[in-house]
Amino acid sequence: MNPTTLEAALAVLRERVAPLAAETVPLGAAYGRVLAAPVVSTVFVPPFAKAMVDGYACRAEDTFGAAPFSPRELRVAFEVMPGAVSGRALASGEAARIMTGAPMPEGADGVVMLEHAALEGSAIRLVQALPPGKNVAARGEDVAAGDVVAAAGRALRPEDVGLLAAVGARAVSAHRIPSLVVFSSGDELLDAVSEEAPRAGAIFDANGPMLEALARREGALVRRGGILRDERATVRAALAAGSEATRGADVTVTSGAASKGKEDWMPEVVSELGALWVHGVSIRPAHPIGFGRIGERLHFLLPGNPVAAWIGFRYFVRPALRLLSGLAPDEAFRPERTRSALLARKIPSVIGRTDFARVRFTEDGRVEPLRTGGAGMLTTVTRADGVVVVPRELEGLEEGAAVEVDLL
Amino acid sequence: MNPTTLEAALAVLRERVAPLAAETVPLGAAYGRVLAAPVVSTVFVPPFAKAMVDGYACRAEDTFGAAPFSPRELRVAFEVMPGAVSGRALASGEAARIMTGAPMPEGADGVVMLEHAALEGSAIRLVQALPPGKNVAARGEDVAAGDVVAAAGRALRPEDVGLLAAVGARAVSAHRIPSLVVFSSGDELLDAVSEEAPRAGAIFDANGPMLEALARREGALVRRGGILRDERATVRAALAAGSEATRGADVTVTSGAASKGKEDWMPEVVSELGALWVHGVSIRPAHPIGFGRIGERLHFLLPGNPVAAWIGFRYFVRPALRLLSGLAPDEAFRPERTRSALLARKIPSVIGRTDFARVRFTEDGRVEPLRTGGAGMLTTVTRADGVVVVPRELEGLEEGAAVEVDLL
After folding, report:
1. Is residue A215 part of a domain?
2. Fewest CB atoms within 10 A around its CB: which of A35, A184, A299, B7?
3. Model-level pTM?
4. Which pLDDT score, from 0 to 100, does residue B373 have?
């Protein structure tokens, strides 16, 4: 194991992980998907000039000069309802009762709000001139035919889905959602999800359920691989390209057996079955992390210690899932939410190693590191508010240093 | 319609919306759920003192005084593997080969790393004293029996799921996930999702698909209500307690027909079927918004303009869904992500009204408002990076003002 720097390891991911193929996704399922092709509108939104308020459609010029001492009267000639097009044009001296959202009748270029027009018999009386275009949404004001309403590479937000619906897009071309299988490795592990009975010397597997939930948060399709016993043949059979457990998966993740101890089969098995691109990264925790390829599938070897597995997911597996989903590299590697803060207490580290320190906010809005070390202590993550990265050029971060917190 | 202030309207939600009932949720489905009861560990994590590295378990006192010029020799008496408990205690002068994660044998209180011990025949030679406890995770170091590992009201994060698995929690008590039905209202609307054919005077419904996606993002169970025609009887039948369309729903949302125009049936129908708690809020956009109760169900009347519907969801429906899910009020009403910034351009408003201005970041990191008004223009949302709230005490916000941006 010849440890790489964090930057070099992430550069390998960035270069070698490409978006999954595009597929057609119906509009009702498009939320969260990343577009493989831009969506170009074929229509105008709105498709016609429409009233923005309930009131009377008029010709603005008919109202010019209207004032309390010289009101203008317009005859209410007809009514226009939403969803119907008026067959009749508005003549000079006429007004049409109109509802919000209804198409403006031909000839009309403004709407007087209901409360600003006094209805007397079949006429309205106006005491104020109406500027042309008032209370009217112009045809194509929001979107013109030919406009790109969502660019390729965009992760569709709910409001994008609204806009796609507005232009009548029935389906979009989006990258496939990555599917992922999570395995835990170790003879000492008990499966809490399948309610395995406790036994002496054994511990409940925290990593499997945690990694599955982490992948779900990224929108991946998740399958349980369960627990692998510490036997070379078992591990090999489970991870082989085309194995039943991994069939159809774009990504597999194992936690445990990742280092170079007596029963750490993973690096060897991955090398044999495919290619181990990186093994060992000068970071803390999670330095035995590795990743490579088995068939067409990406494989990640995460350490068995839960905090290390968690860090490995956050800084390696998550960006890989985002690249597969079709996000641009800068976006794929960007932390979800960050906040600037000052350090309430020093974080020690060593030059040449990148440290991921779990921190929490103090009452006065600064951040302090939680107990470092203890890669087995998941409570240092559940109690944390975020992570501060100590870059490898530094021996640590001093009290009072300005840091960027990667928020949980 | 006698408009309330934003603060008064939200106070009504806060007071009247209570968490949904608790149910038992298996661990594998617990991610994202809000705990109705705390989870108390019945076990220690780790359940026994365990080795944190591969190496040799020793009695630390046997190594005291070890130095390059006076090495200590220990006989390697047996081996301990993960998942197995050693039946044998470590005697003085002995060491045991041990693997990461294996239980410490009785009598041993430290582990020498493999690379720090020279194996010669069946003995190891140490040239440095081992501090007691070195490379050992103490029993219960992470969690002690009786510890609360997750408090009631906590929205379970992936790492919480890991910790719950670690303590062998097979299921948790969590609040029900709110289920929601979304209707759009208007004769002018076409359904893009069901691929309705265009017709003159009609527009595609943007709100339904958008509101469905917004609710999905909050983790709600979403059902399509589809488009309601502008007929009193139709609206009434769809929204009545126990109607087929709304059966089992905790929340219904309609967009359109919310104001007080000729065919704005919603306020009247909701009043008749249940209670309209609030109708009309002095905000912009979305001032015709309302909400109340029909049977046991919450009902929201959102305006038909897409931007107004979007604002109504974000500042009214979202916190209500979060309250129903079991989050504490402060958390339910808290924006998801905010960032402080300076205004690059003035945002005008009027005293007495709270404005929600869509903004985007400029190249130099300040924020500028997108075209205000145009409540129909969904592109002012899809192009936005966030929302700045102009409080009702102010006539607007000046260029250079420090603002908190509610990020999209």
Report:
1. yes
2. B7
3. 0.93
4. 55
Q: Please give the C-alpha separations between residue B252 and each of A184, B151, B240, B321, B357, in angstroms, as whole numbers.
A: 42, 30, 11, 11, 26
- Residues B257-269, mean pLDDT to the nearest whole number: 84
For residues B63 and B97, state if they share a domain: yes
Instruction: Note whether B44 and B140 are within 8 A (CB).
Output: yes
Over residues A36-45, mean pLDDT: 96
The verdict on a CB contact (< 8 Å) between B162 and A378 is yes
Do residues A363 and A265 share a domain?
A: no
Note whether A198 contacts B: Cβ–Cβ < 8 A. Answer: yes
DSSP code string of A132-190: TTTTEEPTTSSB-TT-EEE-TTPBPPHHHHHHHHHTT--EEEEEPPPEEEEEEE-TTEE
Nearest by CB: B27 against A26, A167, A193: A193
| Confidence at residue A201, expressed as pLDDT on a 0 to 100 scale | 86
End-of-domain residue from the set B175, B199, B229: B175
Cα dihedral sign for A142, A146, A152, A158? Answer: positive
- Give a yes or no: residue A206 inside a domain: yes
Task: Say yes or no for a CB contact (<8 Å) between A306 and B27.
Answer: no
Q: Find the closest chain B residue to A336 by CA distance.
A: B337
Distinct helix (H) and strand (E) counts, chain A: 9, 28
Assign residue A383 a region: left if phi > 0, alpha if psi is -120 to 50, beta otherwise?
alpha
Whether the Cβ atoms of residue A98 and residue A85 lie closer than 8 Å to each other = no
**Do both B199 and B227 map to the same domain?**
yes
Q: What is the DSSP letter of A232?
A: H
Based on the fold, state whether residues B76 and B154 are members of the same structural domain: no
Rounded mean pLDDT of chain A? 93
DSSP 8-state symbol, A2: -
Q: What is the CATH number of the domain that holds A157?
A: 3.90.105.10
DSSP assignment of B303-344, as one string? -SSHHHHHHHIIIIIHHHHHHHHT--HHHHHS-S-EEEEEBS
Judge whether A281 lies within some domain: yes
**A297 and A202 in a common domain:** yes
Query: Total structural domains in chain A?
Result: 4
Question: How far is Cα A279 from Cα A258, in angstroms, rounded to an integer?
Answer: 9
Does one domain contain both B187 and B274? yes
Q: How many Å apart are CA A140 and CA B349, to the nearest integer?
A: 27
B393-400 average pLDDT score = 95
Q: Which amino acid is at B253?
A: V
CB-based contact B377 A142, cutoff 8 Å = yes
Q: Do B15 and B75 meet the contact criterion of CB atoms below 8 Å apart?
A: no
For residue A366, give its domain range.
338-407
As a whole number of angstroms, the distance between CA A10 and CA A284 comes to 15
- What is the predicted pLDDT for the residue at B374? 57
Same domain, B194 and B288: yes
Q: Are A136 and A80 in contact (CB under 8 A)?
A: no
Is the pLDDT at A373 greater than 60, yes or no? no
Residues contacting B321, CB < 8 A, separation 6+: B178, B180, B215, B218, B219, B220, B251
Q: Does B224 lie at the interface with A, CB-CB under 8 angstroms?
A: yes
Residue A117 lies in a domain: yes
